[in-house]
Design goal:
By secondary structure, this protein is mainly alpha-helical. 73% of the residues lie in helices and 0% in strands. The chain starts with a helix and ends in an 8-residue tail after the last helix.
């Protein structure tokens, strides 16, 4: 991405974060006119499209972004969310499993996915994700006290 496109993308993101969706959409589409396979613009336009309730179109855009940039964690996360919102958590599970396999040491990601799995009654996947969410040594005295638990005595 050249400097101009990068600056335009940042401007689009600022509009998007401020809730100015029409302005953000216009910028993302301008970038895609110049660079039809720009993964960031495809992904962000997909997120924006999903926010507007056009889930099928949003899924297609995010999938295109992943097709261009296969190791795109945020896109997989949003694809899984869009698919689960659509009611297809079985299909969303594949996107979430890709996240777990590709980024095995990302503790916040595992915690987030564990909650999504548990909320959809995929308890084995939730247990697996939660078990990877806590770094080694999480049962230290300090961390257990922070949760209001007394340390175990052996």
């Amino acid at each position: 991405m050249d400097v101009t496109s990068n600056e335009r993308l940042k401007t689009g993101i600022r509009h998007h974060q401020a809730g100015r969706l029409a302005e953000a959409e216009q910028i993302y589409r301008e970038i895609l006119q110049l660079r039809p396979n720009d993964p960031e613009a495809l992904h962000l336009l997909g997120v924006l499209t999903g926010q507007r309730g056009k889930t099928d179109a949003a899924i297609e855009l995010v999938r295109r972004a992943i097709g261009v940039k296969p190791r795109f964690a945020e896109a997989y996360r949003n694809l899984g969310t869009l698919l689960s919102e659509k009611g297809g958590f079985n299909e969303a599970g594949a996107a979430f499993q890709t996240l777990l396999q590709e980024w095995p040491t990302d503790c916040p990601l595992h915690r987030e996915l564990g909650a999504k799995f548990a909320g959809n009654e995929y308890f084995q996947q939730a247990i697996s994700a939660f078990s990877k969410a806590a770094p080694r040594g999480w049962r230290s005295t300090r961390s257990t006290r922070a949760w209001g638990h007394r340390p175990m005595r052996w």
